[in-house]
Structure formats: C-alpha cells, structure tokens
Amino acid sequence: RQSTSRGRGCVWPPMTAPPGPPPASGEAPRSGASRATLLVVSLVPIFLAVGFLQVVMSVWFLTVGFSAFQIGLLITAQSALVILSSIPLGIASDVYGRRLILLAGTAAGSLGLLAFALTTDFAYLLVASGVLGFAEGATLSTWNALLADLTEQSSRNKVFSQSFVMINVASGVGLALPGLFPFVGGALGLTDYALHQQTLLLLGLLSFASPAAVAAILRRHRETHNPGRKWSGLKNMGTLAKLGFVGGSIGFGAGFIIPLVGTWFSLRFGVSDAYSGPVLALSNILIGVAAFASPRLAARWGQMNAIMITTAASVVFMLSMAFIPLVNVAAAFYVVRSGLMNMASPLLDSFSMSIFPAEQRGLVSAVSNTIFRLPNSVSTSLGGFVLGLGLLELPFLIASALYAVGLGAFLVFFIAAKGRYSAPMSG
Fold first, then answer.
1. One-character DSSP codes across 99-152
2. Whole-angstrom Cα distance, residue 97 to residue 103?
3. Would you say residue 8 has pLDDT above 60?
4. Which residue of 43, 115, 220, 313 sits 20 to 30 Å from the alpha carbon of 336, by its own alpha carbon?
C-alpha cells in the first residue's frame, strides 16, 4: 500500500461555480486552491527520491547481500514508526495546525533519504527506515486534512485526483532511473554500485528543496479549522471503525506482495532492477494518468460504486500474475492491476475526508493510515519470509483473499447504506 501503498498519495484550482455561502470552519476560501497547487509541486523532489529508494530497497539490495527477509524488515521498521507517530501527530494537527507538522515530516524525510546514500550497514538502515516512518506519519497525518481544509467539498474529488497524479508520476520517474544505468554506466565507466550510491546521494540532497518550499508556501497560512485550540475528542467512532476494517483488510493483504513486487520479479524471473525499475515506474506513471479518470468515474457511476468496481477488477489481475510464466505478460498485468486499484484511492481519500468534520480530519487521516499500516507492516515481513522459502504464488493468493474481505466490508458498510454517507457531516 503503500500505500501505502499506502502509499501509499493535491490541489488544482477549483472549477468555476456560482458564489456560495462562506466556508465552514476549517475551510479556506477559493484562493487557497492556488496555494495548494504550489504545495503539491513542492513535494516533487522528495517523491523522486522516494521512488528511486523503493526500487533500491526491493531489488538492488538483493544484489549487495540483503535477503528478502531483511528487505521486509526495513519496510516493517518504517511502517512501525508510521504507526507509532501518526495518531499523536494527527491529533496535534487538529489542535495546533498542520503547517509545522508537515514541515517537520518533509525535513525528516529528506534526512532519512540521505542516510541511505551514506551506508549499506543494515543496523543503520533500520534507524533510517524508522526516520522515514516518522516522516511518513507526520506527512500523511496532515496532508489529506490540509488538502481538504484548502478546498471546497464540491471540488474535492478533482483535488485528490490531481494530488494522486503528482505523487505517482514523480515517484514513477524515480523508479525509472535504474533503466538508464546500463547506458550511463557504460558511457561514464561507473560501476553499478557507484551509480546507485551516487544517485541516492544526488536525490537525497535534492529532496531538501521540498521542506524549504513548504516553509515558504505556508509561511502566511492561517489555521482556521480549530480556533479554540481544543481537541474535539473521539467522535463518529462507528464510521471510523468501518473505514478502518476496510483499510486494515486491504492493507494486510497488500503487504504480502505489493511492497515486495520488485523482489518477486527478481526471484521469479531473475531480472535486475534495470528491468523491474522501469516496470514499476511505468506502473506509477500510468497510475497517475489513470487518476485523471477518477472524478469522471465518480460522476458517472457514483463515488462509492466507482471505488468498488475499479478495486474489484484490480484483484483479478493481481491474482492472475502469480501464475503467468512470461515476465513481460506478468509485468503488463501488474501495470493494469496498479492502475485499476489506484483509481479508487483519490476517491476513497476524498470520501473519507468529506464525511468527517474539519476539526477531526487530522485524526481520521492518521487513524486510517495507522490501521492500514499496522497489518501491512506485519504482512510485509511475512511476505518476505514466504518469498524466501520459494513459495512465489502464495503471497498473491493471500493478498487476493484479504482484498475480497475488504471489498465485501465496503459493500456492506457504505454502498448498502450510501444515503447516510452521501454528504459531509460538516465542513
């Protein structure tokens, strides 16, 4: 999930509409959309580095002596810090504001990325993975909430879709870089190790442009969602629990294979990151392009129906991958699977932010992320262990079954009762 992922993932000026009532608490006027657009662009450098690190961890680390289980542990360490930090930071963002927490998250992310360029010692990389986990927790507990604060509900599907495009295209370019290394290495006389290390260093340094830009863009930002600086407490817990069950089931399933798909390609077909990197990059870029269709799908089929249809179709392609004997066909199925699955992500983000009050969005974003990442972090280690045993089909079978559980829960909890969730509770 990346994935979150969880990724696993901003704002364009809203469409012209007749004047409406003043924005509710937590909502910014329309001029905030242009600021949000700049904020989205500011994260491009850090996501370039994140994309490259993804293929480094899942594929290149195998060539320098790391086992699949160790790779899984690095991903798990990152997820553990996401889990520990997200909820406290989400509450803090609801009470004190999003700006400082987002700035701290992007700065910590740059430091963690740079650490991967300076060492291949496993113990140090565990610490660096933890720093990246804190960075992700700080960013994800504020990002969706900040986007929702800066936009009106009527344009939120489009806003979150555009955010998704930026994240996936930027990280996709980072993933594609190893595909150039055979040509660059031959031209410059550099070893594969030197190319990976120096690229990590360059992108790690470049990523510091993101926190600097965030600080400049949000310098005059006023937090209006909670002027009393009081925590609203735990509200709407039934709805949050339903979202959590859906996300937790899918997160647990995704962890078995999605963060390790580059490792799987290497073990299944014997290909290096010069092959799998561009495949993962193409997947991410097409995910971003596919997200342009999300608002249109929601307008045609309804927001929740669009989520269900695209996610269900993706499971068919994911399950089929396990049994395909040809690397290029398997890669094509993975690309299609990713596009379908992630068409739903901006719609689900928009949906979850719209059904909760503005003063609770930071907590909701943090809890949703934690509930996804907690089982995801456990299953990534399990998936690495299973792959290490040579059981290359089993992670796909487990993931598909758990995705089906999550989709069934979404159908029961939200689509069957969609009248209760067709409009935001407030804000």
1. HHHHHHHHHHHHHHHHHHHH---HHHHHHHHHHHHHHHHHHHHHHHHHHHHHS-
2. 11
3. no
4. 43
Helix (H) or strand (E) segment spanning residue 283: helix 273-290
Alpha-carbon dihedral angle through residues 324, 401, 53, 142, given to the nearest 10 degrees: 150
DSSP type of residue 411: I
Q: Token digits for 82?
A: 């996401």
| C-alpha to C-alpha distance for 264 and 393, rounded to whole angstroms | 10
Quote the CA–CA distance of 387 and 194 in Å, as a whole number: 28
Lookup: tokens for 12: 């364009």
What is the distance between the alpha carbons of residues 281 and 48, in angstroms, rounded to a whole number? 11
The answer to whether the CB of 382 falls within 8 A of the CB of 251 is no
CA 322 remoteness from chain centre: 24
Contact of 169 with 44, CB cutoff 8 Å: no
Return the minimum-mean-pLDDT range out of 8-22, 144-158, 214-228, 343-357: 8-22
For residue 231, is pLDDT > 80?
no
What does the block give as tokens for 364?
């909701």
Could you read off the pLDDT of 213-227 as tens digits, one per residue?
A: 988 888 877 765 554
CA 275 to chain centre: 23
Specify the pTM. Answer: 0.65
Determine the Cα–Cα distance for residues 372 and 385; give it in Å rounded to an integer: 20
CB 177 within 8 A of CB 48: no
Question: In whole angstroms, how far apart are CA 244 and each of 249, 278, 352, 374?
Answer: 8, 33, 11, 11
Q: What is the dihedral of CA 222, 227, 230, 232, to 10 degrees?
A: -90
Amino acid at 24: A
Question: The tokens 């078995």 sit on which residue?
Answer: 256
